[in-house]
């Protein structure tokens, strides 16, 4: 029967990185994936340029039932460590905003770098993974209808997001099989969808982007908001989607840093026969201004005719827009899966299952989910390095 010292399930960001960290002279490392190409999510990440880390990585940039869990791995493998690898590989990069680092060229450069780094490991794509059993101090694993044994099994099969790209719930199934607890999973970093009455505003504005600020359940973000045919998207919405739960209202400021009611009162004070929609268009994108004026029945109205109470209402509509999403676009488009393997059942230094020596879980399948902006890859690298280097 074939034997490996370490079998890694999943050749995504975490699995590929872990293989490179685990290699030692004489050690047999096998990486298995059912996909025909490795690192598919890396390839499409960051709009094809891979936002491979964030220099502002800190544990408060992650959601988890236990926010302290990630700190150990993140402090031992830092963003600068990954930047050093990227530099050594001669990959040009740039900082976009807020510490987000992207490749200047294609994301595939990162995949090539990871494949080079794990040279010496045996990468098997198109592999069908069967049953996993713990037998004595070894594991037995079915692969393509054959059995193989391994001293350690590292599960890096990711979360449920984007099934079309090969996502499955394998990590969660294995965790449950071996008695680990799960934190309920849900789609994160995902567009929000709205009921028909709210879509009356969103739909005609599809494609328009505006800077917005949203504070919700401990998350506070200011970034671009994009109207879509089904609701709202854009970075600020993706960020807040990870904090939002079904049934909750969101309060959105469509003009952060600007008190719309006061600005309108000032414009009114300067006299003139300006229409409300025109006054609004000095403060918001034209189409959004026109749509809100129409929604409020103010298309023909003159600013000079509006009492303070009406301008206060209009200001609140823009600075404190209350809206209740009906849902999210779900795993079909979600960038990440929130929840997952309960960190109480993992060792924070090595990612090893506390009750099952030799079994490890890394990357997105663990209940550690980063904000948008390169944090999820940094978690993949850091958790993978922790497991790969474990003695
Ligand atoms: P990942 O999903 O990368 O890998 C899991 C692997 O396991 C896959 O290769 C899959 O085929 C394999 N697998 C699954 N089930 C299996 C089974 N049953 N049998 C065999 N193999 C199986 N993050 C970031 O930091 N910066 C960014 O720019 C982006 N951009 C981005 C864009 C888009 C569109 C998405 C969907 C996601 C991002 N992300 C991101 C998130 C990032 O891609 C994600 O956090 C990491 O890829 C997670 O790495 P993992 O290795 O844990 O899972």
Automatic annotation (TrEMBL):
Cofactor(s) essential for the protein: FAD
Residues annotated as domain RsdA/BaiN/AoA(So)-like Rossmann fold-like: 5-389
Source organism, top-level taxon: Bacteria
Cross-referenced SUPFAM superfamilies: FAD/NAD(P)-binding domain, HI0933 insert domain-like
Residue span, RsdA/BaiN/AoA(So)-like insert domain: 186-336
Pfam families for the chain: HI0933_like, HI0933_like_1st
Record's keyword terms, sorted: FAD, Flavoprotein
Gene3D superfamilies for the chain: FAD/NAD(P)-binding domain (3.50.50.60), HI0933 insert domain-like (1.10.8.260), Translation factors (2.40.30.10)
InterPro entries cross-referenced by the UniProt entry: BaiN-like (IPR004792), BaiN-like_dom_sf (IPR023166), FAD/NAD-bd_sf (IPR036188), RsdA/BaiN/AoA(So)-like_dom (IPR055178), RsdA/BaiN/AoA(So)_Rossmann (IPR057661)
Protein name per its UniProtKB record: NAD(P)/FAD-dependent oxidoreductase
Organism annotation: Paracoccus fistulariae
């Amino acid at each position: 029967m074939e034997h490996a010292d370490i079998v890694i399930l999943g050749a995504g960001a975490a699995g590929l990185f872990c293989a490179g960290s685990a290699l030692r002279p004489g050690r047999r490392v096998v990486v298995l994936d059912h996909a025909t190409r490795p690192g598919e999510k890396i390839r499409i990440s960051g709009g094809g340029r891979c936002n491979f880390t964030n220099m502002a990585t800190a544990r408060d940039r992650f959601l988890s039932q236990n926010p302290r869990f990630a700190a150990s791995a993140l402090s031992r493998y830092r963003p600068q460590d990954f930047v050093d690898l990227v530099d050594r590989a001669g990959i040009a990069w740039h900082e976009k905003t807020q510490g987000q680092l992207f490749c200047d060229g294609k994301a595939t450069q990162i995949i090539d770098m990871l494949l080079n780094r794990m040279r010496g490991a045996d990468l098997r794509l198109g592999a069908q993974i069967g049953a996993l059993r713990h037998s004595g101090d070894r594991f037995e694993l079915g692969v393509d209808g054959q059995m193989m044994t391994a001293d350690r099994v590292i599960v890096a099969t990711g979360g449920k997001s984007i099934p079309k790209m090969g996502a499955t719930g394998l990590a969660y199934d294995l965790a449950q099989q071996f008695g680990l607890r799960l934190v309920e999973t849900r789609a994160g970093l995902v567009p929000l969808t709205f009921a028909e009455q709210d879509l009356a505003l969103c739909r005609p504005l599809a494609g328009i982007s505006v800077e917005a600020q949203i504070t919700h359940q401990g998350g506070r973000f200011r970034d671009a908001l994009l109207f879509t045919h089904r609701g709202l998207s854009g970075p600020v919405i993706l960020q807040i989607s990870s904090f939002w739960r079904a049934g909750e209202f969101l309060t959105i400021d469509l003009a952060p840093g600007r008190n719309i009611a006061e600005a309108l009162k000032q414009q009114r004070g300067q006299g003139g026969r300006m229409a409300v929609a025109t006054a609004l268009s000095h403060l918001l994108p034209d189409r959004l201004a026109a749509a809100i004026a129409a929604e409020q029945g103010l298309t023909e109205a003159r600013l000079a005719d509006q009492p303070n109470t009406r301008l206060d209402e209009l200001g609140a509509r823009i600075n404190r827009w209350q809206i209740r999403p009906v849902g999210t676009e779900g795993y079909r488009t979600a960038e990440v899966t929130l929840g997952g393997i309960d960190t109480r059942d993992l060792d924070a230094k090595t990612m090893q299952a506390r009750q099952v020596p030799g079994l490890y879980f890394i990357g997105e399948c663990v209940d550690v989910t980063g904000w948008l902006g390169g944090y999820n890859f940094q978690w993949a690298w850091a958790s993978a390095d922790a497991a790969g280097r474990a003695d």
